[in-house]
Specification:
Layout (H helix, E strand, L loop, with lengths): L1 E7 L4 E4 L31 H12 L4 H17 L7 H4 L2 H11 L8 H26 L15 H17 L4 H5 L1 H14 L5 H30 L6 E9 L2 E9 L1
Antiparallel strand pairs: 1-2, 1-4, 3-4
Helix pairs in contact: 1-9, 4-6, 4-8, 5-6, 5-9, 6-8, 6-9, 8-9
Length: about 260
């Protein structure tokens, strides 16, 4: 049974117990929850790049040649004495902000506001759950010797998690638009080293953890949505605007 509730701009409430299933196809595709979509299935190929980044970062903690690369890069940066700017505090979130801005401007991504908010929020939680404890376990000293919370780079992890989020949302709409978020992520990672806050290995590992976190968030989304929607697996919910008899409103469609 499909149950519809319409809330009009004039306060009208109407209900209809059945609806032709073909009409549902006219609604935005990204508003329909696809629990078994290929996009939501675990694809091990998507973990190759983040695993390689993380492996390099971990190796840089112990392998002398990679440690030497960390030191030589820091020495080269200090020799040129670049200005320390704090834009990296903001560019880490830029790709995610762009996703919401583009959707608001009418350039639709893969998911609607609710769904992408759940995905991005999950990604940020996973990123924090990985990077924060690791900093306290590894206790690597920062290049500027301000503390021992250098590995991995949290700013870079968030930046690449945000960039991967933008890529997943827009790669099918426009591939170039989808990858544009990585420019902000790379900028963030570079400036974490230029600002003398992280070693190269910290930044590379942070990028890996960020990409991994977003991929896990997309995989976990159907399960999280199931918990939020209720225990009945046959229940699905859609929220969409409607126009009828010169009145606007919001429609709630529940299929059970």
């Amino acid at each position: 049974m499909i149950f519809i509730v319409m809330l009009s701009a004039y306060g009208k409430i109407t209900a209809q117990s059945t609806i032709d299933s073909t009409k549902v196809l006219h609604f935005r595709q990204d508003s329909i929850i696809k629990i078994n979509s290929k996009e939501n299935r675990l694809n091990y190929k998507r973990f190759i790049i983040p695993t390689a980044f993380i492996s390099y970062g971990v190796a840089s903690l112990a392998i002398k040649d990679l440690q030497q690369l960390n030191f030589s890069t820091r020495d080269e940066i200090n020799e040129h004495k670049p200005d320390h700017i704090r834009l990296d505090n903001y560019t880490q979130f830029a790709p995610a902000v762009l996703v919401y801005g583009l959707n608001a401007a009418g350039i639709e991504g893969k998911h609607n506001f609710r769904d992408r908010s759940i995905i991005y929020g999950t990604s940020m939680l996973i990123t924090s759950a990985i990077t924060v404890p690791l900093k306290h376990v590894v206790k690597e000293e920062r290049p500027d010797q301000s503390n021992k919370l250098s590995f991995p780079s949290g700013h870079t992890a968030i930046a690449f998690a945000s960039a991967q989020f933008m890529f997943r949302e827009y790669k099918d709409t426009s591939f170039l638009l989808g990858i544009s978020g990585y420019s902000f992520a790379i900028f963030t990672g570079i400036y974490r080293t230029l600002n003398d806050k992280h070693w190269v290995g910290d930044v590379v590992a942070g990028a890996g953890f960020g990409i991994l976190s977003t991929e896990l968030a997309y995989w976990l989304y159907p399960k999280i949505n199931h918990l939020l929607s209720g225990k009945n697996k046959n229940v699905s919910t859609m929220i969409m605007p409607y126009y009828q008899n010169k009145s606007f409103g919001i429609g709630l469609v529940k299929n059970f």
